[in-house]
Protein backbone atom coordinates (compact mmCIF):
# COMPACT_ATOMS: atom_id res chain seq x y z
CA UNK A 1 0.00 0.00 0.00
CA UNK A 2 1.32 3.46 -0.90
CA UNK A 3 0.75 5.52 2.24
CA UNK A 4 1.82 8.73 0.51
CA UNK A 5 -1.28 8.93 -1.70
CA UNK A 6 -4.14 11.27 -0.83
CA UNK A 7 -1.97 13.65 1.18
CA UNK A 8 -2.80 17.29 1.76
CA UNK A 9 -1.37 19.98 -0.51
CA UNK A 10 2.12 20.94 0.62
CA UNK A 11 1.05 24.34 1.89
CA UNK A 12 -0.84 22.51 4.63
CA UNK A 13 2.37 20.86 5.86
CA UNK A 14 3.26 24.07 7.73
CA UNK A 15 3.00 22.49 11.11
CA UNK A 16 2.39 24.26 14.46
CA UNK A 17 2.85 27.60 16.24
CA UNK A 18 6.34 28.86 16.98
CA UNK A 19 7.25 29.81 20.57
CA UNK A 20 6.28 33.27 21.65
CA UNK A 21 9.01 35.83 21.02
CA UNK A 22 7.11 38.70 22.53
CA UNK A 23 3.55 39.50 23.49
CA UNK A 24 0.63 38.07 21.54
CA UNK A 25 -2.55 40.09 21.49
CA UNK A 26 -5.25 38.91 23.87
CA UNK A 27 -7.72 36.63 22.12
CA UNK A 28 -5.30 35.63 19.35
CA UNK A 29 -2.85 32.79 18.86
CA UNK A 30 0.32 32.65 16.85
CA UNK A 31 -0.18 29.94 14.23
CA UNK A 32 2.54 31.24 11.91
CA UNK A 33 4.21 27.87 11.50
CA UNK A 34 4.18 24.50 13.23
CA UNK A 35 7.33 23.56 11.39
CA UNK A 36 9.31 26.53 12.59
CA UNK A 37 13.07 26.34 12.89
CA UNK A 38 12.58 26.71 16.64
CA UNK A 39 11.02 23.26 16.74
CA UNK A 40 13.21 21.42 14.18
CA UNK A 41 10.05 20.12 12.47
CA UNK A 42 10.29 19.98 8.69
CA UNK A 43 7.41 20.57 6.30
CA UNK A 44 8.26 17.42 4.30
CA UNK A 45 9.65 15.06 6.92
CA UNK A 46 8.07 16.13 10.21
CA UNK A 47 10.18 15.14 13.20
CA UNK A 48 12.63 13.31 10.94
CA UNK A 49 15.48 15.44 9.56
CA UNK A 50 14.89 16.87 6.07
CA UNK A 51 18.10 15.31 4.78
CA UNK A 52 19.52 11.88 5.67
CA UNK A 53 21.68 12.10 8.80
CA UNK A 54 25.47 12.22 8.67
CA UNK A 55 27.07 8.85 8.02
CA UNK A 56 30.47 9.67 9.51
CA UNK A 57 32.18 12.25 11.69
CA UNK A 58 35.13 14.30 10.40
CA UNK A 59 38.64 12.86 10.64
CA UNK A 60 39.51 14.13 14.12
CA UNK A 61 36.86 11.80 15.57
CA UNK A 62 37.63 8.88 13.25
CA UNK A 63 38.79 6.74 16.20
CA UNK A 64 35.19 6.58 17.45
CA UNK A 65 33.90 5.62 14.02
CA UNK A 66 36.61 2.98 13.60
CA UNK A 67 35.82 1.47 17.00
CA UNK A 68 32.15 1.22 16.01
CA UNK A 69 33.09 -0.30 12.64
CA UNK A 70 35.29 -2.87 14.37
CA UNK A 71 32.51 -3.92 16.75
CA UNK A 72 29.89 -4.26 14.04
CA UNK A 73 32.03 -5.98 11.41
CA UNK A 74 33.42 -8.47 13.96
CA UNK A 75 29.85 -9.25 15.06
CA UNK A 76 30.38 -8.98 18.80
CA UNK A 77 28.01 -11.30 20.62
CA UNK A 78 25.78 -10.63 23.59
CA UNK A 79 27.42 -11.68 26.82
CA UNK A 80 24.15 -13.21 28.04
CA UNK A 81 24.15 -15.84 25.27
CA UNK A 82 24.47 -19.42 26.52
CA UNK A 83 26.38 -20.66 23.48
CA UNK A 84 29.35 -18.28 23.61
CA UNK A 85 32.60 -19.84 22.46
CA UNK A 86 35.91 -18.94 24.08
CA UNK A 87 36.83 -17.00 20.97
CA UNK A 88 33.62 -14.94 21.25
CA UNK A 89 34.56 -13.96 24.80
CA UNK A 90 38.16 -13.23 23.84
CA UNK A 91 37.17 -11.19 20.78
CA UNK A 92 34.80 -8.94 22.72
CA UNK A 93 37.39 -8.58 25.48
CA UNK A 94 40.03 -7.45 22.99
CA UNK A 95 37.62 -4.91 21.52
CA UNK A 96 36.71 -3.49 24.94
CA UNK A 97 40.38 -3.19 25.81
CA UNK A 98 41.04 -1.20 22.63
CA UNK A 99 38.11 1.09 23.42
CA UNK A 100 39.31 1.68 26.98
CA UNK A 101 42.75 2.65 25.63
CA UNK A 102 41.48 5.22 23.15
CA UNK A 103 42.55 8.83 23.74
CA UNK A 104 39.89 11.11 25.24
CA UNK A 105 38.84 13.26 22.29
CA UNK A 106 37.65 16.84 22.67
CA UNK A 107 34.10 17.71 21.60
CA UNK A 108 34.79 21.45 21.42
CA UNK A 109 34.53 21.68 17.64
CA UNK A 110 31.49 19.41 17.60
CA UNK A 111 29.60 22.15 19.45
CA UNK A 112 29.58 24.21 16.27
CA UNK A 113 27.11 21.88 14.58
CA UNK A 114 23.91 20.19 15.74
CA UNK A 115 24.38 17.61 12.97
CA UNK A 116 27.86 16.70 14.25
CA UNK A 117 26.58 16.47 17.82
CA UNK A 118 23.77 14.14 16.73
CA UNK A 119 26.19 11.85 14.92
CA UNK A 120 28.54 11.90 17.90
CA UNK A 121 25.73 10.94 20.29
CA UNK A 122 24.69 8.16 17.93
CA UNK A 123 28.22 6.72 17.66
CA UNK A 124 29.17 7.07 21.32
CA UNK A 125 25.88 5.70 22.64
CA UNK A 126 26.15 2.74 20.29
CA UNK A 127 29.72 2.14 21.50
CA UNK A 128 28.57 2.27 25.12
CA UNK A 129 25.81 -0.28 24.59
CA UNK A 130 28.19 -2.59 22.73
CA UNK A 131 30.68 -2.24 25.57
CA UNK A 132 28.11 -2.92 28.30
CA UNK A 133 26.20 -5.77 26.71
CA UNK A 134 29.32 -7.63 25.57
CA UNK A 135 30.76 -7.52 29.11
CA UNK A 136 30.55 -10.93 30.84
CA UNK A 137 27.40 -11.25 32.93
CA UNK A 138 29.40 -12.29 35.99
CA UNK A 139 30.53 -8.66 36.23
CA UNK A 140 27.75 -6.92 38.13
CA UNK A 141 29.29 -3.43 38.18
CA UNK A 142 30.22 -2.31 34.69
CA UNK A 143 32.74 0.51 34.53
CA UNK A 144 32.35 2.45 31.30
CA UNK A 145 35.80 3.84 30.40
CA UNK A 146 36.57 7.57 30.20
CA UNK A 147 37.15 7.59 26.39
CA UNK A 148 33.41 6.88 26.06
CA UNK A 149 32.11 8.40 29.29
CA UNK A 150 33.53 11.91 28.99
CA UNK A 151 32.66 12.77 25.38
CA UNK A 152 29.27 11.03 25.60
CA UNK A 153 28.24 12.97 28.70
CA UNK A 154 29.59 16.21 27.24
CA UNK A 155 27.79 15.71 23.92
CA UNK A 156 24.61 14.71 25.78
CA UNK A 157 24.79 17.89 27.86
CA UNK A 158 25.00 19.96 24.67
CA UNK A 159 22.00 18.17 23.16
CA UNK A 160 20.11 18.01 26.48
CA UNK A 161 19.68 14.27 26.03
CA UNK A 162 20.47 11.37 28.36
CA UNK A 163 23.80 9.59 27.69
CA UNK A 164 22.16 6.41 26.45
CA UNK A 165 20.68 5.14 23.21
CA UNK A 166 17.40 6.91 22.48
CA UNK A 167 14.67 6.68 19.86
CA UNK A 168 16.40 9.53 18.03
CA UNK A 169 19.60 7.44 17.75
CA UNK A 170 17.78 4.33 16.53
CA UNK A 171 15.12 5.94 14.33
CA UNK A 172 15.24 9.70 13.72
CA UNK A 173 18.97 9.86 12.94
CA UNK A 174 19.55 6.30 11.78
CA UNK A 175 18.28 6.30 8.19
CA UNK A 176 19.40 6.82 4.63
CA UNK A 177 17.93 6.34 1.18
CA UNK A 178 18.33 3.01 -0.55
CA UNK A 179 18.68 5.04 -3.72
CA UNK A 180 18.63 8.85 -4.10
CA UNK A 181 15.13 10.22 -4.71
CA UNK A 182 14.30 11.66 -8.12
CA UNK A 183 14.88 15.37 -8.41
CA UNK A 184 11.37 15.99 -9.78
CA UNK A 185 9.81 15.53 -6.31
CA UNK A 186 12.10 17.68 -4.14
CA UNK A 187 9.30 18.73 -1.78
CA UNK A 188 7.70 15.32 -1.27
CA UNK A 189 8.14 13.15 1.80
CA UNK A 190 10.51 10.19 1.21
CA UNK A 191 9.00 7.06 -0.27
CA UNK A 192 8.48 4.61 2.57
CA UNK A 193 10.04 1.73 0.62
CA UNK A 194 13.22 3.69 -0.11
CA UNK A 195 14.70 3.65 3.40
CA UNK A 196 17.55 1.75 5.04
CA UNK A 197 19.31 1.99 8.40
CA UNK A 198 22.83 3.27 9.05
CA UNK A 199 23.71 1.25 12.15
CA UNK A 200 22.57 -2.18 13.31
CA UNK A 201 23.82 -4.29 16.22
CA UNK A 202 23.10 -7.55 14.44
CA UNK A 203 23.19 -6.59 10.78
CA UNK A 204 19.93 -8.48 10.29
CA UNK A 205 16.89 -7.55 8.23
CA UNK A 206 14.84 -8.18 11.38
CA UNK A 207 16.59 -5.40 13.28
CA UNK A 208 16.45 -3.01 10.33
CA UNK A 209 12.73 -3.60 9.82
CA UNK A 210 12.08 -3.03 13.51
CA UNK A 211 13.63 0.46 13.35
CA UNK A 212 12.20 1.25 9.91
CA UNK A 213 8.64 0.52 11.06
CA UNK A 214 8.96 3.54 13.36
CA UNK A 215 10.72 5.61 10.68
CA UNK A 216 7.86 4.94 8.24
CA UNK A 217 5.33 5.93 10.89
CA UNK A 218 7.20 9.21 11.41
CA UNK A 219 7.24 10.01 7.70
CA UNK A 220 3.60 9.05 7.16
CA UNK A 221 2.72 11.17 10.19
CA UNK A 222 3.81 14.35 8.42
CA UNK A 223 0.29 14.73 7.07
CA UNK A 224 -1.08 14.54 10.61
CA UNK A 225 1.01 17.59 11.52
CA UNK A 226 -0.41 19.46 8.54
CA UNK A 227 -3.93 18.57 9.60
CA UNK A 228 -3.24 19.82 13.11
CA UNK A 229 -2.10 23.14 11.68
CA UNK A 230 -5.18 23.39 9.48
CA UNK A 231 -7.48 22.61 12.42
CA UNK A 232 -5.77 25.21 14.60
CA UNK A 233 -6.23 27.84 11.91
CA UNK A 234 -9.94 27.03 11.66
CA UNK A 235 -10.32 26.97 15.46
CA UNK A 236 -9.02 30.54 15.49
CA UNK A 237 -11.89 31.55 13.16
CA UNK A 238 -14.49 29.48 14.99
CA UNK A 239 -17.45 30.12 12.70
CA UNK A 240 -19.85 27.55 11.19
CA UNK A 241 -17.69 27.13 8.10
CA UNK A 242 -14.68 26.49 10.31
CA UNK A 243 -16.59 23.81 12.24
CA UNK A 244 -17.41 22.03 8.97
CA UNK A 245 -13.77 22.17 7.89
CA UNK A 246 -12.51 20.93 11.25
CA UNK A 247 -14.96 18.05 10.98
CA UNK A 248 -13.50 17.08 7.60
CA UNK A 249 -9.92 17.48 8.83
CA UNK A 250 -10.58 15.24 11.84
CA UNK A 251 -11.88 12.48 9.58
CA UNK A 252 -8.73 12.90 7.50
CA UNK A 253 -6.65 12.65 10.68
CA UNK A 254 -8.43 9.40 11.51
CA UNK A 255 -7.47 8.03 8.09
CA UNK A 256 -3.82 9.00 8.55
CA UNK A 257 -3.80 7.33 11.98
CA UNK A 258 -5.28 4.18 10.41
CA UNK A 259 -2.31 4.18 8.01
CA UNK A 260 0.04 4.43 11.00
CA UNK A 261 -1.66 1.36 12.47
CA UNK A 262 -1.16 -0.56 9.22
CA UNK A 263 2.54 0.36 9.17
CA UNK A 264 2.93 -0.74 12.79
CA UNK A 265 1.21 -4.06 12.08
CA UNK A 266 3.47 -4.64 9.07
CA UNK A 267 6.52 -4.99 11.32
CA UNK A 268 5.51 -8.66 11.58
CA UNK A 269 6.41 -9.12 7.92
CA UNK A 270 10.07 -8.28 8.43
CA UNK A 271 10.95 -8.86 12.08
CA UNK A 272 10.67 -12.26 13.74
CA UNK A 273 9.52 -11.97 17.39
CA UNK A 274 11.97 -14.55 18.76
CA UNK A 275 14.89 -12.96 16.89
CA UNK A 276 13.90 -9.56 18.21
CA UNK A 277 13.53 -10.68 21.82
CA UNK A 278 16.65 -12.83 22.09
CA UNK A 279 19.12 -11.31 19.62
CA UNK A 280 18.22 -7.64 19.06
CA UNK A 281 16.44 -6.20 22.07
CA UNK A 282 19.13 -7.03 24.66
CA UNK A 283 21.64 -4.78 22.86
CA UNK A 284 19.68 -1.60 23.42
CA UNK A 285 18.44 -2.28 26.94
CA UNK A 286 19.02 0.61 29.30
CA UNK A 287 20.06 0.43 32.94
CA UNK A 288 16.37 0.38 33.99
CA UNK A 289 15.99 -2.96 32.22
CA UNK A 290 19.28 -4.33 33.55
CA UNK A 291 18.70 -4.31 37.34
CA UNK A 292 21.29 -7.01 38.10
CA UNK A 293 24.11 -4.82 36.85
CA UNK A 294 25.14 -1.31 37.83
CA UNK A 295 26.46 1.07 35.21
CA UNK A 296 29.34 3.29 36.44
CA UNK A 297 30.64 6.14 34.29
CA UNK A 298 34.37 6.40 35.01
CA UNK A 299 36.48 9.54 34.68
CA UNK A 300 33.93 12.12 35.78
CA UNK A 301 36.45 13.67 38.15
CA UNK A 302 38.20 15.07 35.06
CA UNK A 303 35.24 17.35 34.31
CA UNK A 304 33.59 18.87 37.40
CA UNK A 305 30.50 19.79 35.36
CA UNK A 306 29.62 16.12 34.87
CA UNK A 307 27.70 13.85 37.24
CA UNK A 308 26.67 10.20 37.25
CA UNK A 309 23.55 10.21 35.06
CA UNK A 310 20.19 9.08 36.41
CA UNK A 311 18.13 8.78 33.22
CA UNK A 312 19.31 5.61 31.45
CA UNK A 313 16.15 3.96 30.17
CA UNK A 314 17.20 3.21 26.62
CA UNK A 315 15.16 3.70 23.44
CA UNK A 316 11.40 3.35 23.50
CA UNK A 317 8.50 4.04 21.14
CA UNK A 318 7.27 6.22 24.00
CA UNK A 319 9.94 8.72 22.88
CA UNK A 320 8.19 9.44 19.55
CA UNK A 321 7.16 13.10 19.50
CA UNK A 322 4.66 12.33 16.74
CA UNK A 323 2.56 10.04 18.93
CA UNK A 324 2.85 12.46 21.85
CA UNK A 325 1.65 15.24 19.52
CA UNK A 326 -1.46 13.25 18.62
CA UNK A 327 -2.19 12.76 22.32
CA UNK A 328 -1.64 16.42 23.19
CA UNK A 329 -3.66 17.69 20.24
CA UNK A 330 -6.61 15.37 20.85
CA UNK A 331 -6.55 15.97 24.61
CA UNK A 332 -5.71 12.41 25.69
CA UNK A 333 -4.67 12.50 29.35
CA UNK A 334 -2.04 9.95 30.39
CA UNK A 335 -1.50 11.25 33.92
CA UNK A 336 -2.00 8.69 36.64
CA UNK A 337 -4.82 9.78 39.00
CA UNK A 338 -4.02 9.96 42.69
CA UNK A 339 -0.22 9.88 42.36
CA UNK A 340 2.54 12.44 42.31
CA UNK A 341 4.82 10.22 40.25
CA UNK A 342 5.88 11.61 36.89
CA UNK A 343 4.00 9.60 34.23
CA UNK A 344 6.23 7.38 32.13
CA UNK A 345 5.30 9.11 28.87
CA UNK A 346 6.07 12.50 30.41
CA UNK A 347 9.47 11.21 31.53
CA UNK A 348 10.11 9.88 28.03
CA UNK A 349 9.90 13.43 26.69
CA UNK A 350 13.30 14.08 28.31
CA UNK A 351 14.69 11.52 25.84
CA UNK A 352 13.42 13.49 22.83
CA UNK A 353 15.44 16.12 20.96
CA UNK A 354 15.00 19.33 22.93
CA UNK A 355 13.32 21.20 20.06
CA UNK A 356 10.67 18.48 19.83
CA UNK A 357 10.02 18.81 23.56
CA UNK A 358 9.50 22.54 23.01
CA UNK A 359 7.06 21.74 20.21
CA UNK A 360 4.96 19.56 22.52
CA UNK A 361 4.97 22.17 25.28
CA UNK A 362 3.82 24.84 22.86
CA UNK A 363 1.17 22.60 21.35
CA UNK A 364 -0.14 21.85 24.83
CA UNK A 365 -0.37 25.55 25.64
CA UNK A 366 -2.81 26.30 22.80
CA UNK A 367 -5.43 28.85 23.95
CA UNK A 368 -8.07 26.94 21.96
CA UNK A 369 -7.63 23.26 22.79
CA UNK A 370 -9.46 21.04 20.34
CA UNK A 371 -11.25 18.87 22.89
CA UNK A 372 -12.76 21.88 24.66
CA UNK A 373 -13.82 23.37 21.34
CA UNK A 374 -15.58 20.14 20.34
CA UNK A 375 -17.30 19.83 23.71
CA UNK A 376 -18.53 23.42 23.60
CA UNK A 377 -19.78 23.17 20.02
CA UNK A 378 -22.61 20.69 20.70
CA UNK A 379 -22.26 19.86 17.00
CA UNK A 380 -23.02 16.17 16.48
CA UNK A 381 -20.98 15.89 13.28
CA UNK A 382 -17.95 17.52 14.92
CA UNK A 383 -18.19 15.29 17.99
CA UNK A 384 -18.44 12.27 15.72
CA UNK A 385 -15.36 13.35 13.77
CA UNK A 386 -13.43 13.96 16.98
CA UNK A 387 -14.39 10.50 18.24
CA UNK A 388 -13.31 9.02 14.90
CA UNK A 389 -9.85 10.56 15.34
CA UNK A 390 -9.57 9.44 18.98
CA UNK A 391 -10.94 6.02 18.06
CA UNK A 392 -8.33 5.63 15.33
CA UNK A 393 -5.62 6.42 17.89
CA UNK A 394 -7.14 3.86 20.24
CA UNK A 395 -7.01 1.26 17.43
CA UNK A 396 -3.34 2.18 16.90
CA UNK A 397 -2.76 1.41 20.56
CA UNK A 398 -4.74 -1.83 20.29
CA UNK A 399 -2.21 -2.86 17.69
CA UNK A 400 0.65 -1.76 19.96
CA UNK A 401 -0.74 -4.01 22.70
CA UNK A 402 -0.72 -6.92 20.25
CA UNK A 403 2.85 -6.11 19.18
CA UNK A 404 4.07 -6.04 22.79
CA UNK A 405 2.33 -9.35 23.47
CA UNK A 406 3.91 -10.90 20.39
CA UNK A 407 7.42 -9.46 20.69
CA UNK A 408 7.96 -9.21 24.46
CA UNK A 409 5.34 -10.97 26.57
CA UNK A 410 5.17 -14.21 24.58
CA UNK A 411 8.94 -14.72 24.18
CA UNK A 412 9.47 -13.78 27.84
CA UNK A 413 7.08 -16.49 28.99
CA UNK A 414 8.57 -19.04 26.64
CA UNK A 415 12.01 -18.18 28.00
CA UNK A 416 10.84 -19.42 31.39
CA UNK A 417 10.23 -16.23 33.38
CA UNK A 418 6.46 -16.44 34.05
CA UNK A 419 6.67 -14.84 37.50
CA UNK A 420 8.37 -11.62 36.49
CA UNK A 421 6.71 -8.94 34.35
CA UNK A 422 8.20 -8.57 30.87
CA UNK A 423 9.93 -5.20 30.92
CA UNK A 424 10.03 -2.79 28.03
CA UNK A 425 13.26 -1.04 27.09
CA UNK A 426 12.13 1.87 29.26
CA UNK A 427 12.04 -0.36 32.34
CA UNK A 428 8.24 -0.57 32.62
CA UNK A 429 6.01 -3.62 32.84
CA UNK A 430 5.59 -3.51 29.07
CA UNK A 431 2.23 -5.20 28.65
CA UNK A 432 0.54 -3.51 31.60
CA UNK A 433 1.85 -0.15 30.45
CA UNK A 434 0.60 -0.33 26.85
CA UNK A 435 -2.77 -1.64 28.04
CA UNK A 436 -3.06 1.33 30.39
CA UNK A 437 -2.16 3.81 27.66
CA UNK A 438 -4.70 2.21 25.32
CA UNK A 439 -7.43 2.45 27.99
CA UNK A 440 -6.59 6.10 28.68
CA UNK A 441 -6.92 6.82 24.98
CA UNK A 442 -10.35 5.17 24.89
CA UNK A 443 -11.29 7.32 27.89
CA UNK A 444 -10.94 10.46 25.75
CA UNK A 445 -13.97 9.55 23.62
CA UNK A 446 -16.83 12.00 24.06
CA UNK A 447 -20.42 11.02 24.71
CA UNK A 448 -22.62 11.77 21.75
CA UNK A 449 -26.03 13.28 22.50
Automatic annotation (TrEMBL):
Heme b binds at residue 400. Keywords: Heme, Iron, Metal-binding. Signal peptide: none annotated. This is Indoleamine 2,3-dioxygenase. GO terms for molecular function: heme binding; indoleamine 2,3-dioxygenase activity; metal ion binding. The keyword Oxidoreductase does not apply. Belongs to the indoleamine 2,3-dioxygenase family. GO terms for cellular component: cytoplasm. GO terms for biological process: 'de novo' NAD+ biosynthetic process from L-tryptophan; L-tryptophan catabolic process to kynurenine. Pfam families: IDO (PF01231).
